[in-house]
Amino acid sequence: MIGALNYNEHKVKEGTAVCLLAQNFMQSAHQLTFQGKVDRFAQHTQRNRRAQVNTVHISLNFSPDEELTPQQMQAISLSYMTKLGFGQQPYLVYQHLDTAHPHVHIVTTNIQSDGRRLSLHNIGRDKSEPARKAVEQEFQLIQASERQQQAPSLQPLKADTYTHRGRKAYINQVIATVNRHYHYTSLSEYNTALGYYQVAASRGSERSRMYNHGGLQYTLLDGNGRQVGIPVKASALHQFPGMRYLHAQYQLNRKLRTPKLTQLSNMVDQGLRSPEVRDLKGLSTYLEAHKIDVHYHQSTKGQLYGVTFIDHERGIVAKGSALGRNYSVNGLRRQLEGERPSSQQTVNNSPKPTRPKRYPRQHAFRPRRAYADIFTVLKHHRGAYQLPVENQLSLRKKKRKKRRRL
Question: Whose CA is closest to 219, among 168, 259, 262, 177?
């Protein structure tokens, strides 16, 4: 509870957040002190000391096209919390001003006044999602499903972006946008999406303390991809987006991204079949017209060693290797220089089966179907022709008879 309060109160001191509402408190939001807020929540949390989770931190995000007043945000928060089942709980509503899209943070507790806990099991699916849809209809808001289909856009870098406060605000905005619109499964893919907005994440050197403790630092980039300004640690940003946070995102994004990979590979195949595409640059131009950016990874010597696709329409970031070996840099070059995928070719990322070698037929013995495979395996692996078991036994019997005659 202290961590969630400190985060929002720190924003208030910086001037990037405002406490709009203090619901079920004895005083109004502007009259409450920090200690007064802590004591009010403690009246609930101390009634159930066995509960491992007693804090709920919610973020309600609206479309950048929405122009909401503080009074409208208060009404939306009240309606949402009531539909969520937290209407009788004490909660604080903070409006954050450090991003391009309007949003509020709500801090509350799931411990009721009698010490019983409000269940948080599947609360996002069972309660939050229906509550969100109902609030969107009640206040005639732009629906989240429509927002996901729109291409994400950010305000261009301003002069104050390079100040400490402006830098943190912009990086927070970029991280929120990337996590909301794109599915990535590695730090490289994450950096490709961040680089689209001139931000980069680094773990530092392998011997550094930050690397060993799973930390990250974020920096701004100029037009040439060079770092600008002082890096910002993940611990100083919203949601603490370090490696632990990213690993959780990897697992979730891997499930969400898999069904869309085939659609992306189909679009790349269309580009390869286009008569206008003759090289990698032409492929990039073709895909950009279809809302897919292609990022080629280049070594210090100028050699290309990898490719990553950013599909803005489907919201996925994927290396070429994730689509199949035919979509790596070398695979794309081979297809552009040689055989291209036909229009009726189905996407199959698995390697083509090799044609089995032909061996001379054996006319001395034709084994039955039941042990034909065993016979072939013995022949291949031991490197010499072996008689079937039946013939070997017959030879042994003949040898024994000859010995007895002597």
Answer: 168
